[in-house]
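Quick one: structure for this chain?
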Amino acid sequence: MNPDIQAYNDARPPADKAICDLLAQQICLQLPDAENKIWHGHPVWFLEGNPIVGYSKLKDSVRLLFWSGQSFDEPDLQPGGSFKAAEIRYTVVTAVDIKTLKRWLKKATIIQWDYKNIVKRKGILERLR
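Got it. Here's what it folds into:
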């Protein structure tokens, strides 16, 4: 894992750090070939330059965001943003269901919208897979 992501996690209060550490560990395990870095101030994982999953600290929770998550057909993921992203928010580490997270991460590798080229296409998303 990118040391900048660990520094991001370490800067969180203990309850949020536990959530962030668990998410980072599981994402790295499930997406071993993904590039990971701090992007726009938050930890994000990329496949072939395309953002797949990331998390960020909000005022009252840690938000896990899947860029193509609205296409996963998963009721626990809520629409986020104006494109195809979906999210779930955690307030305690025990709320993170590892089995479900693994399923979502698998879908994240299979179902992808092309965010990498969204600027070049003037805001139009195309499905990659």
